[in-house]
């Protein structure tokens, strides 16, 4: 089923795009990640221009997050107080990211920067996840109970002023910490089309010290509003949002998020993390190969 994408200016198989959206949705529901960190590279591999892929993936992540937030709200697993602080930071970050995007686009380096960021971030996150998952699986097989992780925020967070109580997360910390994390995620969302959950979830656990039972739902809540803001920024500034591409991705992701939220409670978490880590590392290696690979045609001519 061929579908024409007006902004990307090419025809694609609509069923393939829907399938990519479904994969993103499943990851969103299972891990609390927006899924854009895989959607954008996969779209690039499929032939979508990086700028259009990044801008359109951000809008698609919004749909997957809506479905996921509803699922976790039913379980009372969302800290709205913490989420709103992160949303404020994320909207500020998306504005900063829009300026960076326009600058890099003006100097002709945006495609290269997007690819390099993906290689660095996916390689780092995938490596850390794989290491942690391997230790957890090995401990489970040997019968040794893993040492429980002490839930404690980072010393830098403890030194920040103006403490607030976040009752649902069980924290008494400065709102500056989640605000700054939100700013960083907003910049990444604008530049890379990611929801930022693959950075946000570890940051909430290991930097803020949030309660694990609200991390995924709160992450999706933040991603929902920040991707909405980033999509609007892209539509107004870069004009790279392809509504047809985004609609096809949404069609698959909304259903996938519900499936993912159901699977999350049925499969061993350490095995899920290892599978995700392997996928992330494979995507990072493929993008690194693409950066160093010399194309058969160095120059191309585009119609005006």
Automatic annotation (TrEMBL):
Signal peptide: none annotated. The chain crosses the membrane at residues 12-38, 44-72, 84-104, 116-137, 171-199, 205-228, 240-260, 272-293. It is a multi-pass membrane protein. The keyword Signal does not apply. Its main location: membrane. GO terms for cellular component: plasma membrane. Pfam families: TauE. Keywords: Cell membrane, Membrane, Transmembrane, Transmembrane helix. It is found in: Cell membrane; Membrane. The keyword Transmembrane applies. Belongs to the 4-toluene sulfonate uptake permease (TSUP) (TC 2.A.102) family. PANTHER family: MEMBRANE TRANSPORTER PROTEIN MJ0441-RELATED, MEMBRANE TRANSPORTER PROTEIN YTNM-RELATED. This is Probable membrane transporter protein. It comes from Caenibius tardaugens NBRC 16725.
């Amino acid at each position: 089923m061929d579908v024409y994408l007006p902004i990307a200016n090419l025809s694609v198989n609509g069923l393939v795009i829907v399938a990519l959206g479904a994969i993103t949705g499943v990851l969103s529901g299972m891990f609390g990640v927006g899924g854009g960190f895989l959607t954008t590279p996969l779209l690039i591999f499929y032939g979508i221009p990086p700028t259009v892929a990044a801008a359109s993936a951000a809008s698609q992540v919004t749909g997957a997050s809506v479905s996921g937030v509803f699922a976790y709200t039913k379980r009372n697993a969302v800290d709205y107080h913490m989420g709103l602080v992160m949303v404020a930071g994320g909207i500020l970050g998306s504005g900063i990211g829009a300026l960076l995007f326009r600058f890099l686009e003006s100097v002709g380096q945006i495609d290269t920067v997007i690819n390099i960021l993906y290689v660095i971030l996916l390689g780092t996150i995938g490596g850390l996840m794989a290491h942690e998952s391997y230790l957890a699986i090995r401990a489970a097989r040997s019968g040794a109970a893993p040492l429980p992780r002490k839930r404690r925020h980072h010393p830098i967070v403890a030194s920040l002023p103006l403490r607030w109580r976040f009752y649902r997360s069980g924290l008494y910390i400065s709102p500056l910490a989640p605000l700054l994390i939100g700013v960083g995620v907003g910049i990444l969302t604008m530049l890379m089309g990611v929801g930022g959950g693959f950075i946000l979830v570890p940051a909430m656990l290991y930097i803020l010290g949030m309660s694990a039972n609200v991390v995924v739902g709160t992450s999706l809540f933040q991603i929902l509003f920040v991707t909405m803001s980033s999509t609007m920024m892209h539509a107004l500034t870069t004009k790279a949002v392809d509504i047809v591409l985004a609609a096809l991705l949404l069609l698959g992701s909304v259903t996938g998020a519900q499936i993912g939220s159901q699977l999350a409670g049925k499969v061993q978490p350490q095995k899920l993390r290892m599978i995700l880590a392997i996928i992330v590392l494979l995507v990072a290696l493929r993008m690194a190969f693409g950066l160093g690979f010399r194309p058969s045609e160095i120059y191309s001519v585009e119609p005006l």
